[in-house]
Amino acid sequence: MKKEKKAGFITFALSFVGKKNLKALKKASKNCKKTSEDTLRSILEYAKETEWGKSHKFEEILSAKTGEELFSLWQKNVPPQDYEDLRPFIERHKNGEENILFPGKPMMYATTSGTTSAPKWIPITKVYMDTVYGKMTKVWLFNFIKNRPKVFTGKIVSIVGKVIEGYAPDGTVFGSVSGVTQRDCPKFVKKLYASPADVFSIADYTARYYAIMRMGIERNITLIVTANPSTIVEMQNNVNEFYDQYVEDIEKGTLNASLNISKEIRAAIQPYLKPNPERAQELRELKAKYGRVLPKHYWPNMQILNTWKCGNTKVYLDKFKDSFPEQMLHQEFGYFSSECRFGLVLDDTNNTVLFPHFHYYEFVAEDEIESENPHFLQLHELQQGKRYCPFVTTYAGLYRYNMNDLVELGPCFENTPT
């Protein structure tokens, strides 16, 4: 009864804040042309006093009387950007300068190898974190509840990056945005995670997956979130290799002493461990019955698996086909990168719902990508079924940023294409 009340409270709390932000998203999506104009003006207003804003005439662009004039002045004064165009300005931020691309300094950097020779350092501002990773994460969690009401009746396995990878020259942290989001989530949500965020700082690859799965397989997992489905394959490979050792650890409340895990991380993990002979016996019986034990056996109440399903990640999906319970929803993770969380998938399709109230989007049609003077399209000008290269402008210093991707337009969410 106590667990049911706790799950009910969590569902109620996440639904309350999620509904509010979903309502705002729907309102913004009803007139994407007007919302795009409002968002671009807001970003220009936010950054007009920065060095980049002044040199690219943000104040003049803001003087436009109509949306058409605004878009025209914007394209006239701000050329499309690749990361290398922005790198010198980001380097200045990294060395402590303020008000270059955006007001003040970033709260952190996300790093990615991308397609460049040197790593990309993607600035994350507080405004960006509070909206795209704050408000829209609430929609994301509420969406899980809408699709599977029992999703938060158990525990969560979420595979994220290391919160702190290192520091810029001025001391600003760089690391995983998803890791920071998990670290800073409400306490009542944090208690749902099967393991502490410290496990993602385990350097040894095998030991990291062992720790994650040793704690995960002991618990009633109802939600898994990990962008790349290859991670699911690695998790099960670890189970196949170390199942008997998991069982022994679970029975004794230990974490294999031979694993290459620091004392500090072991200390952080210790509160998650206690002798559980009953669960150990259940796991032994599963192996005796099935031989090769799969997620549908040790996690029969799984509600949602959230990973990428599109592009070249499809190659991994067949490797765990039929491994999960039939009632589980395998939901697409959505169009998401270090540079930009473009949107969310809200149903059982692969269609990413955009955030027109937090990003300004532009697109170039597939057949014009190689053109010297491509025609840039607004959201309201796109056609379903056609393919485009997206360019994004954000509250984190990316202006007309070329994502170098190819996306296909799906049906509308409200009146905004997915």
Structural topology:
Blueprint: H1 2-29, H2 32-47, H3 51-55, H4 58-62, H5 67-77, H6 83-94, E1 108-112, E2 120-124, H7 126-147, E3 155-158, E4 166-167, E5 173-175, H8 177-183, H9 187-190, H10 205-218, E6 221-225, H11 230-252, H12 263-269, H13 277-290, H14 295-298, E7 304-307, H15 314-317, E8 329-332, E9 343-345, E10 352-354, E11 360-365, E12 376-377, E13 387-393, E14 401-402, E15 407-408, E16 412-413, E17 416-417
Parallel strand pairs: 1-5, 3-6, 6-7, 7-8
Antiparallel strand pairs: 1-2, 4-5, 9-10, 11-12, 11-13, 13-14, 13-15, 16-17
C-alpha Rg (nearest Å):
23 Å
Question: Which class best fits the helix and strand makeup?
Answer: alpha/beta
Tally of individual helices: 15
- Are there runs of 5+ residues with pLDDT below 50, and where? none
Mean pLDDT: 94
What is the number of beta strands? 17
Specify the biggest β-sheet: 5 strands, antiparallel
Estimate what percentage of residues fall within beta strands: 5-15%
- Give the termini distance in whole angstroms: 41 Å
Q: Report the principal-axis shape.
A: globular
In helices, the fraction of residues equals 40-55%
